[in-house]
Every structure is written in C-alpha cells, then in structure tokens.
Amino acid sequence: MFVRLVYESFRRQKRRKLLAGAAITLGVTVATAMIAVATDIGDKINRELRTIGANLLITPQEDTLDVEIGGVNLKPCLQPISRCKTYTIAVALSSNS
Question: Which domain holds residue 16?
C-alpha cells in the first residue's frame, strides 16, 4: 500500500519531486564544500604558524612587577633595546593530523 502511494505521488507530481531532489542535492553539495574549505583553511594556518615559529617577547608593563617564568625574570627593560636582554619563549603547537 505504501509503495503504491509513493509511486502514485511521484507519477502525479514529477516536477515538484524533481525540484525537491535538486534542492536537497544542492544543499548537500554546498555543505560539503563549506566543510572542506573550513578544514583546509585550518590546516593552512597551522602550517603557516609552524613555518613562522614562536617569536614572542612577553614583558610586563610595570617595572615593579616581579614576573618569573622558568627561572627567567621578565621585568621590562627601561634602557634602549640594544642594551636589554631578550629571551625567546617557545610555544609548541600541537596538531592532531
């Protein structure tokens, strides 16, 4: 009975069923393309950050703050930059790929 009902529905309203099928196909295609683009962008950003490397210099604004990370005192240098000690803090980026 159900099969006959579906068959008759398709036989009577071919254009409507074809349009619905085309809309579903288009929606699935667009969703798949968006997921692929989003994944690719994330991978490209990850690769770019890995090639640049970690080159961050983190210092407090106030020289009265005592900030130590890993035994390194990070007080800001009030002298010209050429006379200041600089430290590089490496940040490891992990990837699940």
Answer: 1-53
Let me know whether 28 and 61 are in one domain: no
Instruction: Convert the pLDDT of each residue in 69-79 to its tens digit.
Output: 777 776 666 66
Residue 70 lies in a domain: yes
DSSP state of 69: E
* Single-letter residue type at 66: D
Question: For the chain, how long is the longest CA-to-CA vector?
Answer: 89
What is the sign of the dihedral through the CA atoms of 13, 16, 22 and 23? Answer: negative
Nearest to 57, CA basis, from 75, 78, 45, 71: 75
pLDDT of residue 14: 83
Identify whether the C-beta of residue 90 lies closer than 8 Å to the C-beta of residue 54.
Answer: yes
- Rounded to a whole number of angstroms, the distance between the first and last alpha carbons of the chain is 51
